[in-house]
Amino acid sequence: MLDLIRKAVEAPRARAWISIPESGIPELVSVGAQPSGNASAAALPPVYPEWLGDRAFAAEHGARFNYVAGEMARGIATPKMVIEAARAGCVGFYGSAGLPLAEIKSGVEEIKAALGPEARNWGANLIHSPQEPGQEKAVIDLFLSQAVSRVSASAFMRLTADVVRYTALGLTRAADGTIQRANHIFAKVSRAEVAEAFMAPAPEKILKDLVAEGAITAQQADLASKVPVAAEITAESDSGGHTDNRPASTLFSSLAAARSRVAAHNGHPESSIRIGLAGGIATPQSVAAAFQMGAAYVLTGSINQSAIESGLAAPGRALLAKAGPADVAMTPAADMFEQGVQVQVLKRGTLFAMRGKKFHAFYRSGASYETLPPTDQKWIDDVLGEPFEAAWQATRGYTQKVHPAEAARADKDGNKRLALVARRYLFMGAQWAREGHPGRAADYQIWCGPAMGAFNEWVAGSFLEPVEARTVRQIALNLMEGAARVTRAGQLRSMGLTVPADLFSFRPVAFE
Length: 512
What we know:
Blueprint: H1 2-10, E1 16-19, E2 27-31, E3 42-44, H2 55-61, E4 67-69, H3 79-87, E5 91-94, H4 101-115, E6 122-127, H5 135-145, E7 150-154, H6 161-168, E8 171-173, E9 179-181, E10 184-189, H7 192-199, H8 204-213, H9 218-224, E11 232-236, E12 241-242, H10 248-266, E13 274-278, H11 284-293, E14 298-300, H12 314-321, E15 328-332, E16 342-346, H13 352-364, H14 374-384, H15 388-402, H16 404-412, H17 414-435, H18 451-459, H19 472-494
Parallel strand pairs: 4-5, 4-14, 5-6, 6-7, 7-10, 10-11, 11-13, 13-14
Antiparallel strand pairs: 1-2, 1-3, 8-9, 12-16, 15-16
Helix pairs in contact: 1-19, 3-4, 7-10, 8-9, 11-19, 13-17, 15-16, 15-17, 16-17
Protein name: Oxidoreductase, 2-nitropropane dioxygenase family
Keywords: Dioxygenase, Oxidoreductase
Pfam families: FabD_helical_ins
């Protein structure tokens, strides 16, 4: 029977026939065709990669698989990555966060030209930008003008008027009375209280203010008061970049419970809100586990950063390919440095995490550059690669353009000056990694979760081990095919059959 069990796992698209003899112990009697002379044998249905997850998600977004190649900010998730993910039957998100508006527009136009006007399985990223007033509005305006119909909203700590406006402007009522969406928000969250705001209808005050401003119509406000702000909620567990390091199973359960509460309170069916899982999605086992928990879709991030379509330069991708599951660390985020918000980054091969933490310790102590001991001043100058005053003048020039009030405050407050210069260093760390700056390898900021290490262990010795062979298409197809086989192995085990442990793993293969 072991040979049959192996065949059933390795051919998950074929039916497996189970017989239960008088002993009561199930037996696998055939794979594929129904066994002759055994009319009582029960068929175990096929397992297709396309069937894993919520098929309504794939139908809504024009995808073959319930699989999202997630956005990675600052253009790490390039237009090319989005195009290749979409062509592979996945949903792809452009890493538009942190890019100039002109570059975002160019990237969106490149995607649209490649995929055509009918493609629905792609979108772009909107990141919460409290330090840059007006930025969210400007990006949303751009998305609306370019007919970007899917937006992944990340790092939000609260619901904002611009997110509500984007959703409301895409709502219409169909002839049968149902409310339809033209604009879809994928809310990436790691806390139930934040998720609940996206799961619920938009707050009355925000809607009234938007109507008063002429940003939406009264009819659109009425529709927005009846449906969730976001129908897609991405549970962001222990991921690269902004993360609360939540275990996937705990976070998913928490958000599922939140969905139940919000749906009951607002009289919505729970199925109107789909929860996907991100963070730690790197192997067939993790993909299968996510779907088994009830995830509507999975989202991959860190592992795609090492793919050839990534906007990360070759030196950074090479560092990622050597990472183990423990080769990550938390460090202050450039965009929310003063608030103490952290991001998870690659630790192996760089000093960025340690240096970022030291900058934040100086800031938290209340120090300014001028009040620090000479040894610490020298350390700062060495890390910056220039005297602090030169770094401050460059920082001041930029800050005056985007946030004049902060620049004015920093002119009088040395601690604030130190914070702004530190933010510039943290920001530049990502830029140096993106460009592959040869003299700044120790300062590369590479957003990375432990999934990267798990992926490297999985592909070791396979055709996907070399960085040059890693494409978003091959990564996605191997993960989904592998998850189907792991799911089939679980099916057989749940029927009472003894399944060898090695059948719960899958080695990568090159798909045509």
